[in-house]
Amino acid sequence: MDGSDIARRKAGDEEITVTRKSAFQLRTSASLTSDIADLLEARRLVQSRRLTKGKYTDLCKVLGFEPSEHGVWTFPRVIAALKLPDSMLFDWVHSAIQDGMFQAIFSAYLQEVQDGELDSVKAFLHGWTWVEGNNRGGVAKLLDIFAGGSWHGHSRPSATDCLVAIVVLRCWLVLGGADLGRAGKNILLFTDLVSAIQSAKFSGTETEGVADLLSTMWEQWATDFMAICPEAWKPKGHWLGHLGDQWRYFRMFLDTWVTERLGRRVKDTTSRTRNTRAFERTAVSGIFVAHCEANAHRDRLLSCEVGSAFSARCSSMGRTISCGSWVRHRESLAIGKVALCLLLDGRVSLYVAMHDIVPTPRFAQSPFWSFVSSEPGGCELWDAAHVEIPLGLKQEIGYTVLLSSP
Prior knowledge:
Layout: H1 29-47, H2 53-63, H3 76-82, H4 86-89, H5 92-96, H6 101-112, H7 117-125, E1 129-130, H8 133-146, H9 159-175, H10 181-201, H11 207-228, H12 235-240, H13 243-250, H14 257-271, H15 279-295, E2 300-302, E3 310-311, E4 313-316, E5 319-322, E6 326-329, E7 335-344, E8 347-357, E9 369-383, E10 387-388, E11 392-396, E12 399-403
């Protein structure tokens, strides 16, 4: 624990603020279970007045945990299913952007900014069109935090909200001409790390190169962060340091986007169920139906006659795409507007009217945004499963700014 001075009492121990990855060792399930058992026993000794509360608190600080006697650790079968600590360590979403390090970084930034920044953000966001309701929700949460709202509590932002907020915040910091300060520059380093994670998930990049890059980016960001606000450092910051190893060993990043979608589905279903004696059975039935509908989706044309191979709308990967929608190719990052949806060899494809990338003298292109010509060029045929839908867009004189998820 930072400032506890406990680490200095034992050779080889380190304070939590250290950023050397070599100073930390990964927990195993056996070592973690043993320490938790010791802590639960120490808690019982405190309750029986055979151990002082001060010594128990010091023990919790040294081991880094304070388990509850009413929590999951008293249920061995549940613990076995959770596969701790791997399931905690490798959930990069909650280590990084949702109840993770992003909140600490942003809080440090808010302590640096001057009065009036909320008005600056609102002015910058004026005129944007957000493609989906979830994106608008993420922007609203960001504005609420700028106005003094909290990251925590019942209405805390979801992981999806936070990802949208990160992209919008980076866009404002760079394109809006905001005064970065030290914390603002650390936000940019952090969003670079998030972008690298997302890019690696969809690319076939060589394993060792990605792993080394992520480790290097983490060290740069962590060192910079510790110079700004070491008191806000969390164990989750250290967990992010193992992203390179995770990619090296598994060639994938484990996250909780699916879990969040399932949680939203449950919440949406239960909120529309009347609270009667049959609430539980009705809610479970509704959730089951919603699961079946979500899992049964297939790429197909919409709003067209049976047997037709052309349509103005289609469904691909659970998304509805319509003529006139902006899309970006996941691999080439080329951008265009959908001109036609068609069924080709059993797969949904898109005729896309291409729009040239517009060079700007002040800002470079980025995985987070693109400046594209308002006038279309030629057409290309894309597989609908290989396109991304922008988070939002803003029409400027002579070009359009598209905001994309990294």
